[in-house]
Amino acid sequence: MDLRLYDTLTREKRPFVPLDADNVRMYACGPTVYDFAHIGNGRAAIVFDVLFRVLRHRYGAGHVTYVRNITDVDDKINVRAARDYPGVPLNEAIRKVTELTYQQYQDDVSALGCLPPTVQPRATEHIPEMRAIIEKLVAGGFAYVAEDHVLFSPQAMNAANSMLPRYGALSKRSLDEMIAGARVDVAPYKRDNTDFVLWKPSKPGEPSWLSPAGINAEGRPGWHIECSAMAWKHLGEKFDIHGGGIDLVFPHHENELAQTCCAFHSDRMANVWMHNGFLQIESEKMSKSLGNFFTIRDLLADWPGEVLRLAMLKTHYRSPLDWTAKATEEAAKTLDDWYAVAADAEPGAPSPAMVEALYDDLNTAQAMAVLHGLRGAASSSEQSRKEFAGSLRLLGFLSESAAAWEARKRQASGVDATAVEALIAERTAARARKDFKESDRIRDQLAAMGVAIKDGKDAEGKPITTWEIAR
Fold first, then answer.
1. Confidence label for 463 from pLDDT (cuts 50, 70 and 90)
2. InterPro entries given for it (predicted)?
3. Which end of the chain, N or C, is more open, meaning fewer C-beta atoms within 10 Å of its C-beta?
4. Is 288 annotated as a binding residue?
5. Largest Cα–Cα distance of the chain, in whole Å?
């Protein structure tokens, strides 16, 4: 069956044909490391982790290269560094901030079940590549120097008589629309309002590097050039897939596409552009002013990462996602059941029906329907249980044993396991002497503690009572 992906550039879903099936290459925009990542950033990490897993399943784990960058030079980083480390030289303070927040992000997305990318390049380690691209753009007439800045000219790109795409092709906007819809920096040295910065002079104390294009003053890169440079270094002039959130289409990805195509005289940067939809909270836009802004770390304090992962994957990646407390609770209950049934099963090959759903532009909503069907069959067939376990693992679930999952729930609940076991022993004794009134009273007491019990028999047919934390 074909793997079909939706391309933002062409606005169509079509069969995915890699440039080289022995080295399928994808790039996704990662975080700017100045603070904890919000849950919307978590959605992007999960979506492209699923794509990474699907590509590995289809082409082999050793035949997929996944690059997710780290932006570690930015005005917001400078502001936090000065705030958190007063009296410390700014460059040293910046390093402290970026090291801390980089590790926080790594820990958070790992808790969401995301595999580590093949490469996680830092922007500050790719300044030579940025300068090289800028030099190519200036030499080609697509960029110019003005007052120690280097600026890219969309007008020059669109005037070029070549195979280059039109500036605005990715976002499907005209230059006038882009001016009206963007926060345009007005500066006297710009030839046109749509021109954007590739390089700028550093202020005193800010990070700085040797400038390109014959500029004597040291400076630092603009935001957009960073990803063009890192993608080029690790994936080449043209690669298979470029991904990110829908909010990055304009201006970031539009500008990346323009820079790379003009620098290398190419009609494409990536063969497929993929973007996940917005995330809102309880039907409202996430905003600090509304008090509904949540970081991944905030939610991990209340829920296991796989619960957050499942809550996101129930919605197709291109659709808007409404994050609700109810949906999170439902995801937790579903995972409790899945862990009880399949966590300790030997995983088999994933269900062909689920693979088919994922090959249809990562249709995780359809994959969920397949999983629920597999869950029903898993109760009566060991082969179905193995297939169920293999399908869940392909999606990034079942990272723990059933016992570890249950132990996590017990620890998070604050329930005293010793006290629960003592009450169960008392109830067992009451049942043995046929004191059913006392037995019911203890069951109710346990329920009030948030404990659900289940009576059954062990392998030898003897009565046994097990318990778990009720969601």
1. confident
2. Cys-tRNA-ligase, Cys-tRNA-synt_Ia_DALR, Cys-tRNA/MSH_ligase, CysS_C, Rossmann-like_a/b/a_fold, tRNA-synt_1_cat_dom, tRNAsynth_Ia_anticodon-bd
3. N
4. yes
5. 94
252 is in an annotated binding site: yes
Backbone dihedral region of 396: left (phi > 0), alpha (psi from -120 to 50 degrees) or beta?
A: left
| pLDDT, averaged across the chain | 92
pLDDT digits (tens, 9 = 90+) for 82-106: 999 999 998 899 999 999 999 999 9
pTM for the full model? 0.89
Q: Which amino acid is located at 422 in the chain? A: A
Predicted confidence (pLDDT) per residue in 359-382, tens digit: 999 999 999 999 999 999 998 899
To the nearest 10 degrees (0 to 180), the angle between helices 364-378 and 305-313 is 120
Consult the annotation and say whether 437 binds a ligand: no
Question: Taking phi first (over 0 means left), then psi (-120 to 50 degrees means alpha), and beta for anything else, what does residue 117 get?
Answer: beta
Question: Does pLDDT of 148 surpass 50?
Answer: yes
Torsion of CA 149, 153, 157, 160, to 10 degrees: -90
188 upstream amide cis, omega within 30 of 0: no
Query: Is 348 within 8 Å of 361 (Cβ atoms)?
Result: no
In this structure, the number of other CB atoms found within 10 A of the CB of residue 40 comes to 22
Length of the chain: 471
Domains recognised in the chain with CATH numbers: 4-276 (3.40.50.620), 280-408 (no CATH), 414-469 (no CATH)
Q: What is the pLDDT of residues 45-76, one digit of tens each?
A: 999 999 999 999 999 999 999 999 999 999 99
Of 176, 135, 120, the C-alpha closest to 259 is: 135
CB 32 within 8 A of CB 380: no
Give the sign of the dihedral formed by CA 249, CA 250, CA 252, CA 255. positive
* 363 Cβ contact partners less than 8 Å away, ≥ 6 residues apart: 316, 357
Token pair listed for 173 = 């906007």
What is the 3-state composition of the chain as percent helix, strand, coil, each rounded to the nearest 5? 50, 15, 35
Query: Residues of the chain with pLDDT > 90: what percent?
Result: 76
Average pLDDT over residues 247-260: 96
**Token code pair at residue 284:** 């409202």
- Rounded Cα–Cα distance for residues 396 and 337 (Å): 16
